[in-house]
Write a structure and sequence with these properties.
46% of the residues lie in helices and 18% in strands. The protein is an alpha/beta fold. Helix 3 crosses helix 11 and helix 4 packs antiparallel against helix 9.
Amino acid sequence: MKSASIAPEIPVVIAMDGGQSSTTCIVTTPGGDVLGSGVAGPADHISEPGGPERCRRAVTSALDAALMDAGLDADRVHLLAAGFGMSGGTRRMQEIIRGCIAADHVVVVPDSVACWQGATGGEPGVIVISGTGSVAYGRNQEGDERWAGGWGYLMGDEGSGYWIGIRALSAATRSHDGVVAKTTLQERIPQAFGVPDLRSVHGALYSGRLGRVEVARLGQVVDESAAAGDTMARAILECAAEHLADLAQAVFNKLGLRADRHRVSYGGGVFRSSILLDRFRSLLAHSLGGDVVHKPRFPAIVGAWQIGAQSAGLPVTTAECERIVTTLTATGSIKA
């Protein structure tokens, strides 16, 4: 009797980008063709109560969703390499991820490093990230690296989405009370949360029904208000840009970089605001003495993929990275 043939395992590479709002995973062939993508919850703040469990859940759920999207059976894939760019990518987080991902090569780095890798292509320079939180990271030609920011919402995160959201809430309540001039944020914020007024927002925040992620999403409300002519909203965005420019300048100078040779890039949802980005660019042109701010070459998820693939000795070219971005943009997995 012939024994039943066993289907060979499919070699794949996975990459994850884990932030304070969500965790995104992609599954690709060794050559960089995207097979599937998936999204799960945040995996940040590993030291908080429930943090390790949240990390495991986010990582495994994102991978399961990506494999399902690819139509792959988890038992029939061979994970050649896995690159992770994770918010708060501490040693403890590395241990947790390595405990639940069985790959030949697993590399876990802070999300700032993966974002820098994608944005600069691994060349000397600085990346500033502003999403729910904020941080700057850079590396020079000698391989020295420096950070600024990244202290979290209790001790820092100036210029982040959460920082912007808190200032917007304060501006709205002060406007409501007649302490400052009227701002449209007073009406826009309740509308964004689907509640009738600021008192309802107050109740939802203090009861825990709305948390950090929801507050951080007010950055878009602030941007829309500023674009419509609200001076209070514009002032909040411009102040956020100043904080983010300070982070970039601190890292740039610590590393001894030069404006005529090196670049500052950016990542995170806050930089979708053209008002904030224009101010950020202008401030650094003045302080560093050159046109140093450039659009990132590739997003953080591609940076994580590069790091993972390189750890396994797989070829990483610009064409492969561009193909990943094209596929993810076409499927709506990332924004162009």
